[in-house]
Specification:
The chain folds into 2 domains: 129 residues, Alpha-Beta Plaits (2-Layer Sandwich), CATH 3.30.70.141; 33 residues, no CATH class. It contains 8 helices and 4 strands; from the N terminus they run βαβααβαααβαα. The longest helix has 26 residues. This is NDK5 kinase. Belongs to the NDK family.
């Protein structure tokens, strides 16, 4: 018997999002936008980094003219670190952020988070990972206790869904149909 629809492929990607010290007062607004954009906030913590920790976090920027100002800014107050999950999370998060220079973002991407909350190239309100390897490194840096397992893709994802997720959903939905509660939630 042929299934009516092909089995869905649901690769989920994680990325790091930082709400920088200059906009921690707007955290709830920003989180609301993140959630309305379809992201799941997997982990969240507030912390304050020392200049040395900031230097380590932004080690790939070492030697650039703005590096001292960047580490000073990032260590100037508390920040909020979040692990976001979604299909193609890294590219969607970068799109939601907009260009790193907030002044340019206001001209070219006026609805982006950096255009709305940032003030200039340094105080651009938020951080996002550039690619998968930097996301993994940055998540481990901000959440050292986190276990970052490889996310299954392709046939491994289909097998995982068929073995673990689908049977649970089928049992739950079947029970729900049999009971027909007034409030299914």
């Amino acid at each position: 018997m042929q299934p009516l629809m092909p089995e869905p492929l649901i690769p989920v990607e994680k990325t790091l999002a930082l709400i920088k010290p200059d906009v921690t007062g707007k955290e709830e607004e920003i989180e609301d936008i993140i959630l309305r954009s379809g992201f799941l906030i997997v982990q969240k913590r507030k912390l304050r980094l020392s200049p040395e920790q900031c230097s380590n976090f932004y080690a790939d920027q070492y030697g650039k003219m703005f590096f001292p100002n960047l580490t000073a800014h990032m260590s100037s107050g508390p920040l909020t670190a979040m692990v976001l999950a979604k299909h193609n999370a890294i590219s969607y998060w970068k799109e939601l952020l907009g260009p790193s220079n907030s002044i340019k973002a206001r001209e070219t991407h006026p609805d982006s988070l950096r255009a709305i909350y940032g003030t200039d190239d340094l105080r651009n309100a938020l951080h996002g990972s550039h690619n998968l390897s930097s996301a993994e490194r940055e998540i481990r840096f901000m959440f050292p206790e986190a276990i970052i397992e490889p996310i299954p893709t392709g046939q491994a994802a289909v097998d995982y869904l068929n073995l673990y997720v689908n049977p649970t959903l089928l049992a739950g939905l079947t029970a729900l149909c049999k009971e027909k509660p007034a409030d299914p939630m």
